[in-house]
Design goal:
Layout: E1 9-10, E2 18-20, E3 43-45, E4 48-60, E5 68-73, E6 82-85, E7 89-96, E8 104-107, E9 123-124, E10 140-141, E11 143-148, E12 155-161, H1 167-172, E13 176-182, H2 184-187, E14 197-205, E15 236-237, E16 240-243, E17 246-247, E18 250-255, E19 257-264, E20 271-276, E21 285-290, E22 293-301, E23 303-306, E24 311-317, E25 326-331, E26 340-350, E27 373-379, E28 382-384, E29 387-389, E30 402-404, E31 411-418, E32 422-426, E33 431-434, E34 447-450, E35 456-461, E36 467-473, H3 476-480, E37 484-489
Parallel strand pairs: 2-15, 4-7, 6-13, 9-10, 14-19, 18-26, 27-31, 30-37
Antiparallel strand pairs: 1-2, 3-4, 4-5, 7-11, 8-12, 12-13, 14-16, 16-17, 19-24, 20-23, 20-25, 21-22, 21-24, 25-26, 28-29, 31-35, 32-34, 32-36, 33-35, 36-37
The structure holds CU-O-CU linkage and copper (II) ion.
InterPro entries: Cu-oxidase-like_N, Cu-oxidase_C, Cu-oxidase_fam, Cu_oxidase_CS, Cu_oxidase_Cu_BS, Cupredoxin
Pfam family, one: Cu-oxidase_2
Family: Belongs to the multicopper oxidase family.
Length: 490
Amino acid sequence: SGGDQGILGRKVPGQTGLMVLGASVPESFTVPLAIPPVLRPVQTVGRTDHYELTVRAALQEIVPGLETPIWGYNGEFPGPLIESQRGRRVVIHTRNELPAPVSTHLHGGRTPAADDGYPTDLLLPAQGWEHGHEHSGAISHGERDYTYPLDQRAALLWYHDHRMDFTGPQVWRGLAAMHIHRDDEEAALGLPTGEYELPLMVTDRSFGRDGRFLYPSRDPELVSPPGVLPDFANGVLGDVLLVNGVPAPFHPVSRGVYRLRIVNASNARHYRFELVPAPPGREPFLLIGSDGGLLAAPVELRSFALAPSERADVLVDFSSFSAGENVVLRNRYGDEHCSDVLQFRVGSELGPSYSTPPVLSHLERLDESQAVRTRTFHFARRNQHDGALWPIGGHLFDPDHIAAAPALGDTEIWQLSSDLRHPFHIHHVPFQVLDIPGVDTYGWKDTLALGLRGSARVIIRFDGYRGKYTFHCHTYEHEDMGMMANYAIT
Ligand code: C2O
Ligand code: CU
């Protein structure tokens, strides 16, 4: 059926996913950008900051004039921004007032396994949930603490739902937010800050006539056990791009240097960002950081790509534009609906300038000779009579199966291959990419888009905490349909 009822997806040529076409597509650049509110600690004890977060349903005006029912951290999409400092522990007391279980994962966090948001470690609803058919994880009833040591480099992290089999629909409803982690090394660079540092969460969604989020499911309550969903091909795409939950917004800037901290929080959509018009006589972007924080040295770029869950930290100098000019951050991978991301309206005031040092960070480079073994994993579709399943190395996700068990401190090479584009993501331990020319400039990563370049080798040091963690495809509809596995640090 068409319109905004029933199963909504249809394939659009040139796209790699299932495109959900909605009825409400607002005009680009008519709504101002919003910056998520910064969450304040409720209490600070020694070196620990305590926060409170309630996961709940709310109504939010996203498309002008319509109210969208969302699920959000503190009832907001995106949820509140958390800012942390290396050396200070963060404890988030979380209460679940949704009608469904959740599991919150701090993406990019180096977190002990019990607080990592394992897919079956469910936080059940505070009220009205019949316990019984959950998988055998650590179950909490109504509320729990998530404790994050955050003894790690400064980086843009983000947090999102990770409930087994339901991550795609639950994040689509709004369970995603940013977390900026800082440290002294980064502070010493004196990078643009305050209104000159913009956290930008990019997602795509589709909206029905009444403002509802549309997600292709046969069940309005989003019950999606493996096997009953329509064939998601390569994930679910929306036809409206949102930045911080605002459809293709505009933002006034002064003629100075801005630091854009971008996370691709989309379920399945890949982006390639460019600036139109480009500034005269130079590349528009200076890439200074990626998933795992600062690069060793800045890289000038005409454009950059982000797979789902990847982050970019870029400087843009608006002083090379004239007052009154409109400069658009565009997505070059999109179809015609999905190229407008964000419009900067350049004002006449001068903003701060910034001269980037040639060395940003003293990055340790992992060396192949340190690796004690090589493992191979193949990410590829398996066809079924009623759709596709997405195994890794032939195995669908099983919470009890351990695919790799490195000893604490081991360095390994993982050889990764895929049939299509799959953003490989591993929890807890960042990696570096081997073999891809030039990519040593891209620093510490936690996600890598497979399938664009054939196979890839990454080098991983399994330090941190012992325990069971996941790695998976970060296309949520693949993850929900099996493309996830466990490793355990022993
Ligand atoms: Cu953002 Cu397990 O993922
Ligand atoms: Cu995938």
